[in-house]
Backbone:
């Protein structure tokens, strides 16, 4: 006997009958099959239980007839047992499963970026106008030697390999499988046009993407999907993924339904099988094991590519980062607890890890105390929402940032958090060819590019305002930051002064 | 109110420098006259000078100039000096009482050499030992401050207009081959003698006009290498960058100035392959030492004088030569005041250094690449 669901719809769909022309666009657009046309009654009926509020039908409706709002129906008020808490129990009582979700932590934790203010020049120090003066954002990621030896006008020893970015923003790891090929093509093309990098995630590099190899960071994760010699050679850098901000400490699971032919070929696994990434790398149980993998990858690529190690921001992140630097990584990527995901257990996403702001400040401070900050570049992600977040991150000590959620929003994502269902109506987090087709990679690239360019201009304006004309002079320049509404302890960890000080 | 060192105080300024490239010494009168012309660029809250070649009789000793808040601390310091150094001489620096200079601390100088056994024990060379000693005194000992620590050179500074400070220290009685001067316009009233320019470390002195927007990026980079930025002034940071790149890294001067005021990437892109590789490496490796924001600095060493502007010239500086003399100042008037008919006068572009080295210089840690660069003035 099947259980009756006690879960009521989260959203209400309001259809303005005066506006609706019954064109059935909403019916065709919704992969969740919310809208249905009843021929007999000549009526469109909406089944709200399925609605995820992805706004696809609303956006596409030619007459603006649809509105989706939160279901106003309320349980009896209870500050402890909120509607959400109750609803989660109903779902688990019905399914007996782990609660799944997509995208980043949406809980009302403090967003520390919003408690940090930037400086600007007045009188004693002129601001610089980026429309009239050069304003340099070029960034190099990779190990920097302690010193240079220059004799008779010649560099005695070549620099270790560096990634050169025209702006300190890269697209973070998203695998083919978790997102569509069109979505990856959009980001790859935008990265190429704007002089930066995209990251394959652990989905391998689809054959169509080898042309973007110079702008690709190829990931090696615990499942080792799609990893082979040509793959390593194709990328500009290699990233070992240890963890991810949305789900620190656990692996990944791409359900077999999403493993269609292209995904199976790229990941080098049989079609239709689940792609399960173990929680740890089974050849990395310690820092010395990590060192071995770092150097194996360097050996395999002739020491020509920087190797990055990506970790989730967890409590002891500063000491871990120090170990990673000493293990030979050229770049450390740190992903904060608000970082996005294609699929994660809800409780883990919402409760594990620490804010990227603290993790970054702690790691930068620690590496400087140990005088090894120049040995690695720091890249941070885990909810970079706008250009101001980037400026603050760099002033706290980052070399560059990773963006993923912002990049997907640029492609049309509406944050419905249902990426794990594979029914993304925006053609992003899906392998359904009918849905994926909705994202035109040329237009997607244009949107992603526009976002990068817009943020670049904004960063330049903010830099100029501070009287700085090169991004390296902002890096770790914490005097450019002031805290507002923070405790002494928070200020101390961030290493910044309070506004007015 | 917090004094300098406890809080960061931006300031505007005037600077001037004169050197004789043959190493012939001349009196301090000219530099006082030169800086005095720019009276309005300072506000009476700081002035100072650096002079090279003034202590020929003690040229092998480090000349420590001290500010003491009171006699007790002086006695304490003297005991500390005796433990670590052989003191060749020690005396109060002669000053001339005047109405315009008030609240002077006790000002003393000692000519010292580190004791051999102390060096052996600490396993460091002489210079490193002196640097650490200076850092220790300035950051850890309250009421004592070493404001000059080089050989055969000295800094003289205090709270007041520079011309009054010059008169106070009786600088016309000294003879040197390089003189630099500074008049300060702090945007706050620290009233602390240690906060005035020049800032020195060993024989490297810096006078500086400007406010460095990259201050904290530079400071944090330096602190990684053991420097303690106790004063929180831009000038201190510039002096340490110079010390680090020149003394510790042994970089050529042209590389140092390229690190501190790098060419733009679009300029580097237009260079030939070899230059491009070097410049890229300098920017990539020494990015934390790029000095950003408006500045015009004059760096003095026993080997010569270097002037440098920020990359987009947000502070004035002008240079001139006549015979064996090189002049650099914030304003043309300051040069013409002491050199009526300069042979060449030019406005160095942003990021373009003026490097004046002594003809006799035998740089130990400044590998100079070409003869041309050695004698002259890179225009």
Residues:
């Amino acid at each position: 006997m099947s259980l009756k669901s006690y879960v009521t719809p989260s959203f209400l769909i309001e259809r303005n009958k005066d506006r609706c022309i019954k064109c059935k666009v909403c019916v065709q657009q919704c992969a969740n099959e919310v809208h249905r046309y009843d021929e007999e009654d000549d009526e469109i009926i909406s089944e709200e239980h399925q609605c995820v509020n992805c706004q696809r039908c609303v956006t596409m409706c030619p007459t603006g007839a649809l509105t989706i709002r939160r279901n106003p129906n309320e349980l009896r008020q209870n500050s402890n047992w909120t509607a959400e808490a109750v609803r989660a129990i109903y779902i688990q009582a019905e399914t007996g499963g782990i609660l799944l979700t997509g995208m980043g932590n949406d809980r009302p934790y403090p967003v520390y970026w919003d408690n940090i203010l930037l400086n600007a020049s007045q009188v004693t120090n002129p601001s610089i106008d980026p429309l009239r003066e050069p304003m340099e954002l070029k960034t190099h990621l990779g190990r920097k030697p302690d010193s240079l030896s220059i004799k008779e006008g010649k560099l005695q020893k070549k620099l270790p390999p560096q990634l050169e970015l025209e702006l300190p923003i890269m697209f973070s790891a998203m695998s083919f499988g978790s997102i569509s090929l069109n979505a990856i093509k959009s980001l790859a093309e935008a990265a190429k046009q704007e002089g930066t990098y995209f990251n394959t995630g652990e989905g391998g590099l689809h054959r169509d993407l080898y042309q973007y190899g110079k702008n690709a960071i190829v990931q090696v994760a615990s499942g080792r999907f799609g990893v082979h010699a040509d793959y390593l050679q194709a990328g500009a850098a290699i990233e070992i993924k240890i963890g991810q901000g949305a789900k620190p400490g656990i692996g990944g699971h791409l359900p077999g339904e999403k493993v269609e032919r292209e995904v199976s070929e790229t990941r080098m696994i049989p079609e239709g099988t689940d792609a399960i990434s173990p929680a740890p790398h089974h050849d990395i149980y310690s820092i010395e094991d990590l060192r071995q993998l770092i150097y194996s990858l360097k050996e395999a690529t002739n020491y020509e590519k920087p190797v990055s190690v990506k970790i989730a921001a967890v409590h002891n992140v500063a000491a871990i980062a120090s170990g990673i630097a000493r293990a030979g990584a050229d770049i450390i990527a740190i992903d904060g607890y608000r970082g996005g995901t294609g699929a994660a257990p809800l409780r883990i996403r919402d409760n594990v890890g620490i804010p990227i702001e603290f993790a970054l400040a702690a790691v930068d401070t620690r590496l400087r105390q140990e005088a090894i900050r120049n040995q690695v570049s720091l890249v941070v992600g885990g909810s970079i929402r706008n250009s101001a977040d980037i400026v603050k991150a760099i002033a706290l000590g980052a070399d560059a940032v990773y963006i993923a959620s912002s990049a997907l929003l640029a492609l049309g994502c509406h944050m419905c958090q249902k990426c794990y269902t594979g029914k993304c109506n925006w053609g992003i987090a899906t392998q359904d060819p009918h849905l994926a087709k909705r994202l035109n990679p040329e237009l997607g690239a244009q949107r992603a590019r526009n976002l990068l360019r817009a943020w670049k201009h904004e960063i330049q304006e903010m830099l100029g305002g501070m009287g700085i004309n090169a991004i390296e002079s902002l890096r770790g320049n914490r005097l450019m930051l002031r805290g507002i509404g923070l405790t002494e302890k928070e200020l101390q960890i961030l290493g910044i002064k309070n506004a007015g000080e | 109110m917090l004094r300098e060192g406890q809080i960061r105080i931006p300031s505007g300024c005037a600077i001037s420098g004169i050197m004789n490239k043959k190493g012939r010494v001349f009196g301090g009168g000219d530099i006082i006259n030169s800086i005095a012309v720019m009276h309005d660029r300072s506000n009476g809250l700081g002035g100072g000078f650096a002079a090279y070649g003034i202590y020929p009789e003690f040229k092998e000793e480090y000349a420590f100039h001290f500010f003491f808040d009171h006699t007790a601390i002086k006695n304490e310091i003297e005991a500390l000096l005796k433990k670590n150094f052989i003191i060749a001489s020690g005396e109060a620096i002669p000053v001339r009482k005047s109405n315009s200079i008030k609240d002077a601390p006790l000002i003393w100088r000692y000519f010292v050499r580190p004791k051999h056994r102390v060096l052996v024990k600490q396993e460091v060379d002489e210079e490193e030992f002196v640097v650490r000693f200076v850092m220790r005194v300035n950051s850890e000992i309250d009421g004592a401050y070493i404001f000059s620590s080089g050989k055969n050179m000295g800094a003289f500074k205090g709270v007041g207009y520079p011309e009054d400070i010059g008169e106070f220290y009786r600088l016309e009685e000294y003879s040197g081959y390089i003189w630099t001067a500074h008049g300060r316009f702090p945007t706050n009233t620290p009233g602390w003698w240690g906060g005035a320019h020049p800032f020195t470390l060993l024989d490297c002195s810096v006078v500086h006009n400007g406010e460095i927007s990259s201050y904290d990026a530079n400071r944090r980079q330096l602190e990684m290498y053991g420097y303690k930025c106790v004063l929180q002034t831009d000038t201190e940071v510039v002096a340490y960058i110079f010390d680090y790149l020149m003394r510790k890294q042994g970089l050529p001067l042209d590389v140092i100035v390229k690190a501190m005021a790098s060419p733009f990437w679009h300029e580097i892109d237009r260079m030939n392959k070899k230059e491009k590789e070097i410049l890229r490496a300098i920017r990539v490796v020494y990015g934390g030492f790029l000095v950003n924001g408006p500045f015009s600095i004059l760096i003095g060493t026993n080997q010569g004088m270097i002037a440098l502007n920020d990359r987009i010239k947000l502070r004035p500086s002008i240079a001139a030569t006549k015979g064996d003399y090189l002049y650099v100042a914030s304003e043309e008037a300051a040069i013409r005041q002491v050199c009526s008919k300069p042979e060449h006068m030019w406005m160095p572009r942003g990021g373009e250094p003026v490097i004046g080295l002594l003809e006799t210089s035998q740089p130990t840690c400044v590998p100079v690449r070409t003869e041309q660069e050695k004698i002259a003035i890179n225009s």
Q: What stands out?
A: Chain A has two domains: 11-73, 139-498.
